[in-house]
Amino acid sequence: MLPTDLPALSAHEPVNLQIYRALRQCIVNCTLLPGEAISDKEISEQFGVSRQPVRDAFIKLVGAGLIQVLPQRGTFVMKISPKRVLNGRFIREAVEVAVARNAADKISDEQLLALAANIEQQKLAAARNDTARFLALDEEFHTTLSRSIDCIEAWELIEDIKAHMDRVRYLSLGEITSLQMLIAQHAAIVHALRSRDPAMAEEAMRSHLREINLSFGPIRERNPDWFEAE
Fold this sequence. Notes:
A hairpin with a 3-residue loop joins β2 (67-70) and β3 (74-77). With 230 residues, the chain is mostly helical. The chain has 2 domains: 15-77, Winged helix-like DNA-binding domain superfamily/Winged helix DNA-binding domain (Arc Repressor Mutant, subunit A, Orthogonal Bundle); 82-226, Four Helix Bundle (Hemerythrin (Met), subunit A) (Up-down Bundle). The protein has a 3-stranded antiparallel sheet. 68% of the residues lie in helices and 4% in strands. It has helices at 15-28, 40-47, 51-63, 82-106, 109-127, 131-148, 152-161, 163-172, 179-194, 198-209, 212-222; strands at residues 37-38, 67-70, 74-77. It comes from Uliginosibacterium sediminicola. Keywords: DNA-binding, Transcription, Transcription regulation.
């Protein structure tokens, strides 16, 4: 079920993209559960818009592998695909390791300060056990890295691929994956960038992104009905 406090729609961006992001977030944080039915009519009423932008958002969600439309049956949140999780991690590592290596040469002092400030905000979110806020800061951290090499397209590519990976990450935060450990990994990336050491930055990023390999198994064992059968 959708939360009642969905963000208000802005006049400065296409409505379908705003609805897509809101629904994607609800799927990633398991507000909308794997297998749950969703209705374009109910969603359009909740946002106060026609059904067309909701249907457009559904098309993007289908493309991301997050929902499926079954004729004569309805629209449902997809179960988590183990293959998409592992493939998403593989592709994300290939892209972000290259981003980190390039950032060691190109990142500005101002961007380094922004990353350091982001980490301080992560610490506050962890102290409050606010996993939603922590994930938002994590996204901001990695977006800043792509901006630092003037290649935001790298992050946009990753966003389309990592949706199933994000669902596992959200389930693991705080219970299986320590927020403090993730903060330490982010700090190691910043240290490597501040040292202008491409090899160190590459290794720090690689270690950070491979953390999901450790959390995936336990999360799947705890929530077997939320995962597709292989």
